[in-house]
TrEMBL record:
Keywords: Membrane, Repeat, Transmembrane, Transport. PANTHER family: SOLUTE CARRIER FAMILY 25. Residues 1-26, 102-122 are annotated as: Disordered. It is a multi-pass membrane protein. Pfam families: Mito_carr. InterPro entries: MCP, MCP_dom_sf, MCP_transmembrane. It is found in: Membrane. The lineage of its organism: Eukaryota, Rhodophyta, Bangiophyceae, Cyanidiales, Cyanidiaceae. Solcar repeats lie at residues 126-210, 235-319, 353-443. One of its GO terms (biological process) is transmembrane transport. This is Mitochondrial carrier protein.
């Protein structure tokens, strides 16, 4: 079949090599009409030809599939450019969002750090009154329980030539003053111990948390990260010793007049009418400076005493808690709902040792501290009592007191006069004190490091 195309001549059966017509390929399955890229397409006599209007020498014929490929390639290139633009815009938006979130996280970390610092400086996340109340009540209960032992210990340490036999001294006090003599000065003792123990515990907890905060902050700075309040930073034994010593010194400064009153009521029974009467008489006779006579040796003695007691107790408690690892992940129950043998599971640390262990740990800590620091306690009480009543002023320093006692009262052994009743009273007193403190602290929902 012969056809005439616009712009062309009447065609004979085309020669495959003749221009402007060329054999383009096998006969297509579909009949194409229309324009594509400015070219006309027709099907004729088994060949598909393309012709361009005008001089075909300037526009050689092309295969239809080449035209389609070029069109699709152009479309894909345009689509790729658009995708690249969208991808670049999305990346820029994500980078801006990440920078904004980083700034917000940094500001939040700085605010959290400042808040944690303020909380730790004021006693930590828990209100300070919880530690204060727990420590004060623990001190009152413990001192009341061991008041007879405290009376005998004070008499032995403050009296020249007193017997060193504990039972004999207690019998002598009972014969002279009756059962009330074993509890003399207990009200003054409780009034002194309540604020002193409360201050010791609250300052101790505050210093512990402050030390932990500083160490955690330094560790995070070294790692280059942000401050994490939840990061666990265990305290060293030396840090607990320092925190306890500073707590003891702070409590001694605040409560020292009550300490003087308690010592006078025990050493000179019947002369003073209560705690406040004792303080009034002392100020009237000796001046207000008498309330703080012997404060320096007291502070020197309180630092190692309270520091050792807190350190030994907490280190022993930590060791016990690490040993009491129990399997609590799962347990097999029988049909009656009773507990059968435990199944293997992860091991966790119990929250608190039992009552008897806490009692024993506190007793051991108090006894160790009293034994180590007893000579300082003897020297402190001698300086505190001189010049009061009929006692002469014969000492002018702690070293002078120690030398005079060693020289005139039987050597170094005299520095440990009253150690037996003192240790005997401290053993139950410290145990009860820490037991009551831990119980009240848990009851009030307070936590500690």
């Amino acid at each position: 079949m012969l056809r005439t195309l616009p712009g062309g001549d009447r065609l004979q059966p085309p020669d495959p090599q003749a221009l402007p017509y060329r054999r383009l390929g096998p006969r297509p399955r579909s009949y194409w009409r229309g324009a594509l890229g400015g070219h006309r397409r027709e099907r004729g006599d088994g060949v598909l030809v393309c012709s361009v209007g005008g001089d075909s020498s300037h526009h050689p014929p092309r295969r239809v599939d080449h035209v389609l490929q070029e069109s699709f390639a152009s479309f894909r290139a345009t689509l790729g450019e658009r995708r690249a633009l969208r991808k670049r815009a999305r990346a820029e938006a994500e980078a801006a969002l990440a920078r904004r979130r980083a700034r917000e996280a940094e500001e939040e970390a700085r605010g959290s750090s400042l808040k944690s610092s303020v909380q730790l400086r004021s006693g930590g996340k828990e209100p300070s009154w919880k530690y204060l109340v727990s420590g004060a009540l623990a001190g009152v209960v413990s001192r009341t329980v061991v008041s007879p032992l405290e009376v005998v210990a004070t008499t032995s340490m403050s009296t020249v030539g007193a017997t060193q036999n504990f039972l004999r001294e207690m019998s002598a006090v009972f014969r002279r003053e009756g059962i009330g003599g074993l509890f003399k000065g207990n009200v003054a003792n409780c009034l002194k111990v309540a604020p002193m123990k409360g201050i010791q515990f609250v300052v101790f907890e505050s210093f512990k948390q402050l030390i932990a905060f500083r160490r955690r902050h330094q560790r995070q700075l070294q790692k280059g990260g942000t401050l994490s309040d939840s990061e666990d930073v265990p305290l060293r034994a030396g840090e607990r010793l320092i925190a306890g010593g500073l707590a003891g010194m702070a409590a001694a400064v605040i409560c020292y007049p009550l300490e003087v009153s308690k010592t006078l009521l025990t050493a000179e029974p019947g002369r003073y009418r209560g705690v406040f009467g004792c303080l009034q008489t002392l100020v009237r006779e000796k001046g207000i400076g008498a309330l703080y006579r012997g404060l320096a040796p007291t502070m020197v003695a309180m630092f190692p005493y309270v520091g050792l007691e807190f350190m030994v107790y907490e280190q022993l408690k930590l060791a016990v808690m690490q040993r009491q690892m129990v399997a609590v992940a799962s347990a097999e129950l029988d049909r009656r709902g009773t507990m059968a043998r435990p199944l293997p599971g992860k091991r966790v640390r119990p929250e608190q040792p039992n009552v008897w262990i806490l009692l024993l740990l506190g007793a051991v800590a108090g006894t160790v501290a009293q034994t180590v620091c007893h000579p300082l306690d003897v020297i402190r009480k001698r300086l505190q009592l001189q010049g009061i009543g009929n006692r002469p002023i014969q000492y002018h320093s702690m070293l002078h007191v120690a030398c005079e006692i060693i020289k005139n009262e039987g050597g170094v052994r005299a520095l440990y006069k009253g150690l037996t009743p003192a240790a005997t009273s401290v053993f139950p007193s410290a145990g009860v004190s820490y037991l009551v403190y831990e119980w009240l602290k848990n009851l009030l929902g307070a936590t500690s490091l």
